[in-house]
């Protein structure tokens, strides 16, 4: 990888994938508060966290803290929207300043921890292969064989578990690691090198799959079409 994160095409592809696929849910080319509301709505509904429950409150607090931090630090033109350029600049600066996970701000550790709880469906403290596949294949529409291969690489053929420590290493490494064998870049390869990253709003097969998933999983809760 290039010395400067923004000079590296793989790192930029990861950031584009993160921006367009994880956060820009209304497909308008920017990330705003409405997108964060949809993200958290999907989390609490998918995890079946009841309104007012501790995890429901934690997820919504995480949403507010993360959005306020992004609005404060990334929204340089102060229009209450984050463009792709602003997103890339923000995370490039975070990656350049990163030392170790003990220095992570609370808003980011909460983001990591809430997502870990979402993926750890049975609550046993680690994400097994079934849970990993359920998220990346079942929800992100990545081919099951690709997901299973990534899981084996990350867990060293299941010699170690994806507990909260390894999960943090994986997700943080997605943004900050320059080691292509790191868990974060293994996940990055799974997401952007294997399936590609659609960065234009045009009707493609991948775009259609994503829209169907958003419609049926996040919103059509009574399954009436």
UniProtKB/TrEMBL annotation:
SUPFAM superfamilies: EF-hand
Name of the protein in question: Uncharacterized protein
Organism: Owenia fusiformis
Signal peptide: none
InterPro entries: EF-hand-dom_pair, EF_Hand_1_Ca_BS, EF_hand_dom
GO molecular function: calcium ion binding
Gene3D superfamilies per record: EF-hand
Source species, domain of life: Eukaryota
């Amino acid at each position: 990888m290039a010395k400067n994160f923004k000079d590296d095409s793989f790192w930029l592809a990861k950031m584009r994938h993160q921006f367009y696929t994880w956060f820009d849910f209304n497909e308008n080319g920017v990330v705003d508060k409405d997108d964060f509301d949809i993200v958290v709505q999907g989390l609490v509904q998918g995890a079946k966290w009841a309104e007012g429950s501790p995890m429901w409150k934690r997820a919504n607090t995480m949403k507010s803290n993360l959005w306020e931090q992004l609005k404060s630090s990334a929204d340089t033109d102060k229009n209450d929207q984050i463009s792709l350029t602003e997103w890339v600049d923000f995370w490039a600066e975070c990656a350049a300043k990163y030392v170790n996970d003990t220095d992570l701000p609370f808003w980011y550790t909460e983001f990591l921890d809430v997502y870990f709880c979402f993926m750890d469906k049975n609550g046993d403290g680690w994400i097994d292969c079934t849970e990993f596949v359920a998220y990346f294949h079942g929800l992100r529409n990545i081919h099951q064989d690709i997901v299973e291969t990534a899981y084996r690489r990350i867990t060293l053929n299941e010699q170690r578990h994806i507990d909260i420590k390894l999960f943090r290493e994986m997700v943080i490494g997605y943004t900050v690691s320059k080691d292509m064998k790191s868990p974060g870049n293994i996940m990055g390869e799974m997401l952007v090198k294997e399936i590609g990253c659609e960065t234009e709003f045009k009707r493609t097969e991948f775009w259609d799959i994503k829209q169907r998933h958003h419609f049926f999983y996040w919103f059509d809760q009574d399954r009436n079409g």
